[in-house]
Amino acid sequence: EEIEKGGYDHFMLKEIYEQPKAIQDTYRGRLLADKGIVKMSGIDQNLEKFLNANRIIIVACGTSWHAGLVAEYIFEDMARIPVEVEYASEFRYRNPVITEKDVLIAISQSGETADTLAAIKLAKEKGAFVFGVCNVVGSSIARETHAGAYTHAGPEIGVASTKAFTTQITVLTLIALKLAQEKGTLSQSKYHEYLAELEAVPTKVEKALLSNALVEEISETYKDSSNCLYLGRGYNFPVALEGALKLKEISYIHAEGYPAAEMKHGPIALIDEHMPVVVIATKKGHYEKVVSNIQEIKSRKGRIIAIVTEGDKAVKELADHVIEVPETSEGLSPLLTTIPLQLLSYHIAVMRGCNVDQPRNLAKSVTVE
Ligand code: G6P
């Protein structure tokens, strides 16, 4: 096992650090930025299904569901296709309206999650076209779907999902870009900018990983907290949910993710000097609005850990701690902002003496309902 961990203390940390390569493996052969094309056989062979779809329904559980939420923003923004994101467990039991004009995308790292599998079977019975985004090759979900795209993240051992999440987002971004180009919903300059930026993501993830020492230092300050709030807007709202999930999964600190603007409808009541608030406040994506959310937290003495774009000034003046990530296109920012949140949960869990790779009560793959 020590050899498998490749010199890292835990699989989770190894997998966090594998992300630049995993993302590259995911787009290799698919993203041809110099030619301006995205090639994905599962989409190419079923293009009409996607182009004629009334809507896309995404089903998933856990972290994969968060990747689905990011995809909702990406698909609607880039390809102008309506998207609904569903917990597989709710979808399958609520007699959902599904038609032959619907495309269902199931996202699953393991490809074995029982609820997701059941949702797929239901959608197939109703005549929908079902597409899988899985990591494990030959898994049940990969076999049960009509077509699909693998994430190629390599084996993920840590129960808390890290590289599976960022590679799922990578695959879904490729699909959205491909459909956007077919439909003409993105300007050519925007489309090419996205291709080039996506190609640059692995290098930028490397840079984001350089925050590790700083994140470790910040973790020391907050390791004994009982609660933590995560806020983000737009593309980074699902990242806030995922950051909170990571913290609760492995450190057992109660954490909640919220859309920043919803703070005033509830969570603001919880803010005092004992409440750390992690705010994703990157440039682009409603930056000024997030800055005013930060001001509201500060005036209530909340402790602010902000994820900002390199070179940021305004947030630096307000926050207790700032962690920088490189600048990128708005739609790709979750691939970078997620990184320090993964590291934060990792370090806090280690400092609390938790079993990082195998947290209590959780399983890597949930094959029961
Ligand atoms: C479990 C795992 C999570 C994972 C979820 C969905 O809860 O602990 O890390 O996100 O299942 O799993 P899947 O394999 O379908 O992505």
Automatic annotation (TrEMBL):
The keyword Cytoplasm applies. Its main location: cytoplasm. It comes from the Bacteria. Its EC number is 2.6.1.16. The keyword Transferase applies. It is an enzyme of class 2 (transferase). It is found in: Cytoplasm. Residues 46-185, 218-359 form the SIS domain. The active site is at residue 364. It catalyses: D-fructose 6-phosphate + L-glutamine = D-glucosamine 6-phosphate + L-glutamate. One of its GO terms (molecular function) is glutamine-fructose-6-phosphate transaminase (isomerizing) activity. Catalyzes the first step in hexosamine metabolism, converting fructose-6P into glucosamine-6P using glutamine as a nitrogen source. Homodimer. This is Glutamine--fructose-6-phosphate aminotransferase [isomerizing]. It comes from Flagellimonas yonaguniensis. The lineage of its organism: Bacteria, Pseudomonadati, Bacteroidota, Flavobacteriia, Flavobacteriales. The chain holds residues 247 to 615 of 615 of the full protein.
